[in-house]
Task: inverse folding
């Protein structure tokens, strides 16, 4: 009998291990209890809709699209994004990049600082071993540049790294805080034999607070500062030959960074690169709230759909008004908000279309490692032990990283495929 460690969680231990590509042949169904609970699932129709919708949005706006691979870390999903027309993919670490390269990525951004010797050596190795691979990473300080230069001096031979200067926001994440700081760094980057300055980058997320009045003002201010740096660098001739990359994140307010990505006010052609990540699975609260504002600003309707759910069992109803579900912090996101109850399916329900929306009084109020606390009105609909409950989530990144595989399910609940993750 094989050791259970060979099986990722929620894959039935009675199943014969096999290629995920052939999983549809097993005839599994989400509501036939073929899979162990809890189980994170991707609804195929919503996933494919989101894949095509976001790529079409970028194409219509005349910008390049490099989805953030750290969200899913799934080679199967990387392949779908590239096949749909993505210019490249984005990652946060050299390890993540290596997974993408193995999946066929040949243009990539590391939207993060690279400075450790092991990471610099790993990146140089990937570049040497992979024909046609082009990678840009972020630099935001002279101290980081000096570490890169020290590493380069210790090598018998090396190729200069492609880099982007990062602009940031005071009190927030990485990035230069002022024009003077940015220009001093840009001049040093342009003069360094260890790097090639390819453009300017920012992460606009901290500037947005889901306020229809504040978000356009605050994001536009960041966009203005990035463009100011780009124009000054261009005037000084500090950019390396070729297209100038201007890049921004774009999962929450991707419409507000378009003036940066569409800018054509420089002496060399601009390649504007949008780096949305959460769009593929979307979510049920955090990004959904931001998306409603995007839809209002852009005059859109029914843009992205929630594709990721975690299904759990009601395993105990120990007292009136409280049920415990078989899903906890090890299974679902809780960093931005607690999960929400999306669907209720008693044991007799066998088709996903027949699952019911829960009463409004059903609320998840807490999570333990392996349990969710479902509170409800005892005078209303009472969940029963053995019922199936689908939980929605905020921030898909921190649900994907809790799973090594996820089934793809059709609208009726049939399991038609699967993806695996490489966290």
Result:
């Amino acid at each position: 009998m094989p050791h259970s460690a060979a099986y990722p969680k929620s894959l039935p231990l009675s199943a014969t291990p096999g290629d995920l590509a052939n999983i549809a042949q097993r005839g599994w169904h989400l509501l036939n209890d073929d899979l162990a609970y809890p189980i994170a699932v991707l609804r195929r129709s919503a996933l494919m809709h989101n894949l095509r919708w976001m790529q079409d949005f970028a194409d219509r706006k005349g910008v390049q699209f490099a989805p953030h691979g750290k969200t899913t870390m799934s080679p199967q999903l990387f392949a779908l994004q590239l096949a749909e027309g993505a210019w490249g993919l984005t990652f946060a670490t050299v390890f993540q990049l290596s997974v993408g390269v193995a999946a066929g990525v040949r243009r990539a951004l590391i939207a993060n600082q690279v400075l450790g010797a092991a990471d610099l050596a790993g990146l140089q190795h990937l570049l040497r071993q992979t024909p046609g691979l082009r990678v840009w990473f972020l630099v935001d300080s002279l101290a980081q540049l000096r570490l890169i230069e020290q590493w380069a001096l210790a090598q018998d031979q090396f190729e200069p790294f492609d880099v982007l200067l990062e602009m940031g926001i005071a009190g927030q994440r990485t990035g230069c805080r002022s024009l003077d700081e940015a220009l001093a760094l840009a001049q040093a980057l342009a003069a360094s034999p260890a790097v090639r300055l390819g453009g300017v980058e920012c992460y606009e997320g901290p500037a947005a607070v889901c306020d229809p009045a504040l978000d356009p003002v605050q994001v536009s201010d960041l966009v203005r500062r990035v463009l100011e740096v780009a124009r000054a660098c261009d005037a000084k001739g500090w950019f390396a030959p070729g297209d100038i990359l201007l890049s921004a994140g774009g999962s929450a307010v991707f419409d507000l960074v378009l003036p940066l990505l569409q800018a054509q006010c420089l002496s060399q052609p601009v390649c504007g690169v949008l780096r949305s990540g959460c769009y593929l699975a979307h979510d049920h609260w955090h990004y959904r709230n931001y998306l409603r504002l995007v839809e209002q600003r852009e005059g859109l309707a029914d843009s992205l759909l929630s594709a990721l759910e975690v299904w759990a069992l009601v395993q105990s109803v120990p007292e009136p008004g409280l049920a415990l579900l078989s899903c906890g912090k090890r299974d679902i996101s809780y960093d931005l908000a607690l999960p929400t109850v999306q669907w209720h399916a008693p044991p007799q329900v066998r088709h996903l279309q027949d699952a019911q929306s829960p009463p409004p009084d059903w609320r998840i109020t807490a999570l333990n490692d392996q349990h969710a606390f479902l509170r409800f009105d005892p005078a209303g609909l009472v969940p029963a032990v053995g019922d199936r409950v689908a939980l929605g989530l905020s921030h898909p990144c921190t649900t994907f990283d809790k799973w090594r595989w996820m089934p793809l399910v059709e609208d009726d609940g049939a399991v038609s495929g699967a993806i695996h993750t490489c966290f």
Observations:
- The chain has a mean pLDDT of 96.
- Residues 172 and 206 are 7 Å apart (CA to CA).
- The chain has ten helices and 17 strands.
